Amino acid sequence: MDNTRSIISILIYPIQLLVSFPIEMAEQTYDTVISYNELKKENERLKEKQLVDSIKLLKFESLENENIRLRGLLESSFKLGEQVLVAELLSVNLVPYEHVMVVNKGSRFGVHEKQAVLDANGIVGQVVRSLPLSSEVMLITDPNHAIPVQVNRNGLRTIAIGTGQLDRLNLPFLPNNTDILPGDLLVTSGLGGTFPQGYPVAVVGNITVQPNKPFANIFATPKAKLDRVRELLVVWSDSTPIPLSSPKVESNDDESE
Amino acid sequence: MKANRNQYGKRYFITLLLAMGLNVLPLTNELKALNPDWVLLVLIYWTLAVPERVGVFNAWGLGILVDVLTGRILGMHGLIYALINYTCIKFHRRLRHYPIPQQALFVFFCLLLSQSLVFWIENIQGSTGLTWVFWLPVLTGTICWPFIFSGLRLIRLIGPVS
């Protein structure tokens, strides 16, 4: 059945390209005629951001090594290596009642189902179907999507469920007296194995305590800019445990793979 | 006769291709909910116009293409289009003589049947939490029918037809 779909999808792909073509053209035109001043401003902003980011990265490498070493000591080690592929969004919308996007990288690039998809700000969703030339990505806000998360502040684990609105996630399984505050960052907990651990997902918004019900009514806003995103990162996460021998040998193994 | 058939074939193909494009057109959130099933509307027109050319198998194949295009379970639109195509072929003699409002009423019921089947199949697959907005394309499709009918009629009859 999947094979049939793959073959037909190759026939269908030109239609999707054709539909998204005008929008891509419009964006390209906009890029070409953008004013010098704006370009300069953007350049300055990006340079500043790059500086800040590279300073953050300076510490990151040593911290990562330290983290791996400490995890090795705790005998619960996980390799944190991840590989990404940039995929571009095709401007087609499949059905109005689902939040599924089409991206222009498919199984020809090794994209497969249940892969996490990110943008620069956080988790966007996961690949639900990979076709030869394109793949379908379900957003975390789809009513049928649930993502295991944890509160970054205290490690509280729960599940965030999509609401069907692009700016809202629902956290339905937290009791009224739970330790969660507006503004808390939710990151992926890595449980379930689909999403790699520790990526930002959403920020907790309003919390309504319902004294007559067992669970509080909590909503969160996704970190990723789901309505404006054009380029996405498809992630190959590798969560195979590091052997508990010396880290040197382990890293050599990596290169040979 | 053969040239005639080819002529229609080309037009049939191109209009359906356009309709498929319209089905997946990227729109804003408000308009997205209103976007009717253009392929089905165009298919109904062609079925009523040349029922001897547009058969059930044809409609089924088209439905499979739409399934892949919109990422639904394979065969959902196939089933829907085949059913509606069959009804249209059954009634085409009567429907051709109806005035356009009455035709639109028939199209309304076709779209309602289609959307009900979609609703049923989607709910079998999982709880989709579909709201009343889901049913709006039935209305917009019905409103679009007079324009589609006259537009496609123009396309069908324009140019060399023997």
Textual characterization of the structure:
With 257 residues, chain A is of the alpha+beta class. Chain A has a single domain (1-33, 82-237), classed as Rod shape-determining protein MreC, domain 1 (Thrombin, subunit H, Beta Barrel). Chain A is built from 3 helices and 12 strands. Chain A has helices spanning 2-33, 36-73, 247-256, and strands spanning 82-90, 100-103, 116-118, 123-130, 135-139, 146-151, 157-162, 169-171, 185-188, 200-208, 217-222, 231-237. Chain A has a 6-stranded antiparallel barrel. A 6-stranded antiparallel β-barrel of chain A has the order 6-7-8-11-10-9. The longest helix of chain A is centred in the first third of the chain and has 38 residues, at 36-73. Chain B is an all-alpha fold and 162 residues long. Chain B has one domain (2-157). Chain B contains 7 helices and no strands. In chain B, helix 1 runs antiparallel to helix 3 (38-49) and helix 5 (76-97) packs antiparallel against helix 6 (100-125). At the A-B interface, helix 1 of A face helix 1 and helix 4 of B.
On the 0 to 100 scale, the average pLDDT of chain B is: 87
Largest interface: A-B, 29 and 28 residues
Content-based structural category of chain B: mainly alpha
Largest sheet of chain A: 6 strands, antiparallel, barrel
Residues in β-strands, percent of chain B: under 5%
Please report the total strand number of chain B as a whole number.
Answer: 0
Poorly predicted regions of chain A are 249-257
| CATH top level label of chain A | Mainly Beta
Question: What is the quaternary state of this protein?
Answer: heterodimer
As a percent range, the share of helical residues of chain A equals 25-40%
Q: How many independent structural domains of chain B?
A: 1
